[in-house]
Each structure stands twice: as C-alpha cells, then as structure tokens.
Amino acid sequence: MTAGTTYLTRDEIRGLAERSDAMGIWLVAHCLGTIALALALFGLWPNPLTFILAVMVIGSRQLGLAILMHEAAHNALFRSRRLNDLVGEWLCARPILADLPAYRHYHLTHHRFTQTDKDPDLVLSSKFPTSRASLKRKFLRDLTGRTGIKQLAGQIALSLRLAGDEDAKAAAASDFAQAFKARQLWTALPVFVAVMVAMGLAGEWWWGLAFWLLPYLTWFQFVLRVRNIAEHGATEESENPLQNVRTTLAGPVARLLVAPYWVNFHLEHHMVMHVPCWRLKRMHRLLVARGLGPRMRVARSYWQALGEAGWKRPA
Length: 315
Fold this sequence. Notes:
By secondary structure, the chain is an all-alpha fold. Helices cover 67% and strands 1% of the residues.
C-alpha cells in the first residue's frame, strides 16, 4: 500500500478497496452471459461474420475470466477468501486451463518486484520496444493458433514429465513459469472439456471446438499479448509507480474485444492492488484530480500503447 498512501489518503483507499459480493456475482455472471450471447448470436444468424465476431467476443471473455481469476487472486472479487478461492478456481481459472493458487503466488511476486530484476514478468516486458516486423510476427503467430498450440503442447509435455516425479516437481516449483503451468493441467482439463461439451449440447456437435478451443488458441492469445504489452511494455525498469506501468484508456469497442473489466487501469491497480477492478476508474479520476495526470504513464488508446512498444512506423 506504500505507493497508494503517497498519493491518496487512507480513508480514500479504504473506500476504494471495499469489496462487494453482489458485484462479484454480477461480474462472473456478465462474463459467462456474454459468452452465451455470442453463441446465441451465431445460432440465430449463422454466417461468417457472426462466426468471427463470436470467436473474438468469446476469446475476449476468456481473457475476462483470467481477469476475474486475477481479482480472486487479490481477494478482491468477493468479501471472503473462501468465496474468492472457490469461484476464482472453478468458474474463472479452470475453464481456461489455469490454476488459482499457482497464479496467486506468481502474480504477487510480480507486484512485489515490479519491473526489477526479481520480477517474474520482466522477461515479457523487457523485449519492448521492439520492431514493427517483430510485433507483426508475434501477432500472426497468435491469431493463427501457433502460439496457443505451442503453449498447450508444452504444458501437456511438462505435466507428463512431472507425473509421479517428486524431484522434477520440486524443481518446477522453484521455476515460476513452470509451476504456473504444470500444477494446473490435469485438474483443469476436465472443466475445459466440459465447457466444450456444454457448447456442443447447446448447438451443433462442433460448437465446442469452434467457440471454446478455437478462441482459446487464437484471439485469447492475441489479446493476452496486447494486454501484457500495454501494461508493462516499453515502460521504465524502475520502482517509480507512475512510470513502471501503463494505464491505457479504452472505448466501448476496446472494452468489448480487448480490455474487459477495467483491466486497462493497470497503473491504478499496481498502486493499490486490492482495489476491486470496478473501482479502478474512480481511482484514476482521483489521481488525475490530484494533478498527477502529467506524471502518470497513460496511453490514450491501445494503438498508442502498441506504438510505444514498436508498432508505430519510424518517422
């Protein structure tokens, strides 16, 4: 809370950090409901346009589930730790082949050492800025499924290697990237498959493949990369909380397809990490009202954030 108390009063932080079970239920219901509506849209008007739109919307809501898992990891989705763990694990993490306890450990270390040599996410952000050609290659791999297939295959291979090997498990547990993936697969996979089966029962047999596996391997990977780049790509490698992370302003289309559930207010989240996502916009306004706007790293759009990371053509 140190960074937050530098710029906000304790009473302001206390008000911002107040959690709501009703809001937590609404967020999870909204995410799952949006997925159902995307399916219904294609079911009512099946054509290439609604197919592509459904894949994009569902992929963005898979990111939405990751964001709500992230909220639960901070115990910010619900008032009680038990409810955060239960809903965060079964309704948010496992449907996207994630594991809440492993993610919590990994992610809190990122918060503690943001943009320093001990940050486990530094390997992601230190690559930027990069060239436009490099970004194009990355995005093409994401959108064609190569990134998702490679990661899923690696995750399966790692889980098989670790099965029954206690020494290997101990070694993997010391590696953040491996531990985050290895412990989750065989417990999460049945839930992932169950979602696909439910979609097949709701429509045609192939709906689960088309509207859960395909978005997971393509659009979800793409927006996950865009979000990672916008949050810490081409920012200061320092302990300055106003410059080592970026907030990106997002309009309705960006919120629908790229940045659901106020994930774009990342600077504010890092300043006081247990503030629920739905109060981050209010926190942003408070900081701007304090005159901090010019000192904060804020992109006007995701295009600008990607431009700072290397998408913008050199003059």
